[in-house]
């Protein structure tokens, strides 16, 4: 189990499902799912996921670098940690998904879709989080879901936070800034994403981290995300993390357009970057209600605006 990522990509099952790595017990729970439990007190329960989309490989490579010293017993761990590779089959195939976009199926939405690989996988991942969070009574629960964007972005590193009734704790938002995210987007309505599921169902502080653009394995320049990788490593072992010089800009989702037919046309060129600003009247009248920024996410277009309160939900 010393190379969990490589074994998963090869479709291999480890010879030993449980092993000790220094002061950490590592358990292989299922394909693409392992749990790391340190000896002694922990800071809380943390889920780190990547590969929800099989063409988003940079976060998987980053996760491999984070796990390597832990699985060799060379670094301490202060969290009870669940590591998830969302869609191993799609990662092996180099495809965004096999049958259906996995990140639209959580919160039981998989039950309404045509059965396939992703519907079964969404059900399994929901069960994995249910078991993980039920096994402990930690008051602190985090879920960081690592992605890359389909399009280029004026903010190459940004976070998308799910709808949440309560205000977001400032220390969580500060950490996202210290992880060198340049922008934060706050949703105001429920969704079928993995991060929304963990937030809504388990009251986890959840965020989808978008880190650069989707590229095949071996074509990622991880130096672009070295500061974020360092922040994740510091989070795992509770080592000091330098504060960001500039806090991330904050946006809130004003409207979402969802493509439900192949006949849907979005009049925006393919090279338009995330967070590109459009003046009122520059798009169709139905969409141009104010000065807006558009962000594309796998069949959806989000119209976002600067957050008035700075904290997302009012």
TrEMBL record:
Record keyword Zinc present: yes
Ranges where the Succinylglutamate desuccinylase/Aspartoacylase catalytic domain occurs: 45-234
Please name the InterPro entries in this protein's record: AspA/AstE_fam, AstE_AspA_cat, SuccinylGlu_desuccinylase
The record's catalysed reaction(s) read: N-succinyl-L-glutamate + H2O = L-glutamate + succinate
* Annotated keywords: Arginine metabolism, Hydrolase, Metal-binding, Zinc
The GO molecular function terms of this record are: succinylglutamate desuccinylase activity
Q: In which pathway does it act?
A: Amino-acid degradation; L-arginine degradation via AST pathway; L-glutamate and succinate from L-arginine: step 5/5
Q: How is the cofactor bound?
A: Binds 1 zinc ion per subunit.
Q: Which cofactor names does the annotation list?
A: Zn(2+)
SUPFAM superfamilies this protein is in?
Zn-dependent exopeptidases (SSF53187)
The residues the record assigns to binding Zn(2+) are 53, 56, 147
* Keyword match Nucleotide-binding: no
A Pfam family this protein belongs to? AstE_AspA_cat
What residue stretch is flagged as signal peptide? Answer: none
User: What Enzyme Commission number(s) appear in the record?
Assistant: 3.5.1.96
Which residues are annotated as active site? Answer: 210
Cross-referenced Gene3D superfamilies, in alphabetical order? Answer: Zn peptidases
Question: Its biological function?
Answer: Transforms N(2)-succinylglutamate into succinate and glutamate.
Q: Which NCBIfam families match?
A: arg_catab_astE, PRK05324.1
Q: Which family does it belong to?
A: Belongs to the AspA/AstE family. Succinylglutamate desuccinylase subfamily.
**The name this protein goes by in its record:** Succinylglutamate desuccinylase
Organism from which the protein derives: Cronobacter dublinensis 1210
Taxonomic path: Bacteria, Pseudomonadati, Pseudomonadota, Gammaproteobacteria, Enterobacterales
């Amino acid at each position: 189990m010393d190379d969990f990522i490589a074994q998963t990509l090869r479709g291999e099952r480890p010879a030993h499902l449980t092993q000790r790595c220094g002061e950490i017990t590592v358990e292989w729970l299922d394909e693409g799912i392992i749990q790391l439990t340190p000896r002694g007190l922990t800071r809380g329960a943390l889920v780190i996921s990547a590969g929800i989309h099989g063409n988003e490989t940079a976060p998987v490579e980053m996760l491999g670098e984070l796990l390597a010293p832990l699985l060799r017993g060379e670094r301490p761990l202060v969290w009870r940690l669940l590591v998830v590779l969302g869609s191993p089959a799609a990662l092996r195939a180099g495809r965004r998904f096999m049958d259906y976009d996995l990140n639209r199926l959580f919160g039981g939405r998989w039950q309404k879709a045509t059965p396939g690989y992703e519907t079964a996988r969404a059900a399994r991942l929901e069960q994995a989080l249910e078991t993980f969070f039920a096994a402990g009574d930690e008051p602190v629960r985090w879920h960081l879901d690592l992605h890359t964007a389909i399009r280029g972005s004026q903010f190459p590193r940004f976070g998308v936070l799910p709808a949440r009734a309560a205000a977001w704790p400032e220390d969580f938002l500060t950490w996202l800034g210290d992880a060198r995210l340049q922008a934060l987007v706050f949703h105001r309505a429920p969704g079928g994403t993995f991060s929304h599921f963990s937030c809504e169902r388990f009251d986890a502080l959840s965020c989808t981290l978008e880190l650069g653009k989707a590229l095949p394995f071996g074509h990622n320049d991880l130096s672009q995300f070295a500061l974020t990788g360092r922040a994740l490593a510091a989070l795992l072992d509770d080592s000091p993390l330098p504060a960001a010089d500039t806090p991330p800009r904050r946006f809130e989702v004003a409207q979402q357009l969802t493509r439900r037919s192949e006949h849907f046309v979005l009049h925006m060129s393919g090279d338009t970057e995330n967070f590109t600003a459009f003046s009122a009247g520059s798009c169709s009248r139905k969409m141009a209600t104010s000065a807006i920024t558009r962000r594309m996410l796998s069949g959806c277009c989000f119209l976002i605006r600067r957050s008035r309160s700075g904290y997302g939900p009012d």
